[in-house]
Amino acid sequence: MSNPLRIRVISDPRSIDPAQMPAFICNACGTQYSPSEAPPAACPVCTDERQFVPASGQSWTTLEALRKTRSNKFRGLAPGLTTIETTPAFGIAQRAILVRTPAGNLLWDCIALIDDATVDLLKGLGGLAAIAISHPHYYTTMVEWSRALGGVPIYLHAADREWVLRPDPAVRFWEGDTKLIAPRLTLIRLGGHFAGGTVLHWADWSEDRGVLLSGDILQVVPSGHVSFMWSYPNLIPLSAAKVQRMARILEPYAFDAVYGAFSGRGQIDANGKQVVAASVARYITRISET
Fold first, then answer.
1. pTM to 2 decimals?
2. Is 115 a member of any domain?
């Protein structure tokens, strides 16, 4: 005879040690929530029009469960840049990028899986000085990454504060359109996809060529251009005025390469500044047609 299912009845949830509660992760988007006895009734990241709830419904996992079925792979992308991706893919299937600078290493964007092997590899490469994330779809388990690497600061734009669903002292909100977080390494708030949508500019990358890490605030597309959307899965575009504003903010920065959030969807290895300008012009022409 099999053992009956045992259900623990909690008479006073306040008596439970939060450290013993699971921190649930949304299977659809990878967002991790503060520890709780039960998963949230819904994931507000997925119910927002910039994401979606799968037809099968909302479902949840934990970091412990992910570690049993998946692993991370590191792959060189370009000088000083290494991608970190989970296999098999999970959630939105974005990649994180390890940015290795003379002033220290930065993790750009975040993925849900963090395990001992990943931590060991990162420590072997010099650890992390900070984490910075382009927008809420990639917040995922950022708190776990910070704690695993010594409590490093997590830089997020204050305009997206409401989307931080697992608050932590490591989160540092910044305001305005730019923030220098290390020599020649600048966070640039462009908005668009989210109010706080941010890209990362490394000015002296690869003998001063400059590189822009764009997340999907500027989505690198298979043609080798970039494009812009308010909602990617629901195909809701941005207005011409908003894209023009993004271009104006970006104009002072020189960069030769642009790398986005996904592998296998094209990348811009050279002439990035010109390609982005041409992409902006093309987009505005098409969105303005009547």
1. 0.92
2. yes
**Structural domain includes residue 33:** no
* Dihedral sign for Cα atoms in the order 165, 50, 106, 86: positive
CATH number for the domain spanning 115: value is 3.60.15.10
Fill in the amino acid letter for 232: Y
What amino acid is encoded at 188 in this protein?
A: I
- Contact between 107 and 128 under an 8 Å Cβ cutoff? The reply is yes
Mean local confidence (pLDDT), 263-290: 94
- Number of structural domains in the chain: 1
Place of tokens 């303005």: 288
Q: What is the pLDDT of residues 122-158, one digit of tens each?
A: 999 999 999 999 999 999 999 999 999 999 999 999 9
Query: Range of 158's domain?
Result: 65-287
- Asked whether residue 1 is assigned to any structural domain, the reply reads no
Residue 103 has pLDDT above 50, yes or no: yes
Residue 287 to residues 83, 239, 250, 278, 284, Cα–Cα distance (Å): 33, 7, 20, 14, 5
Across the chain, what does the average pLDDT equal?
A: 93
109, part of any domain: yes
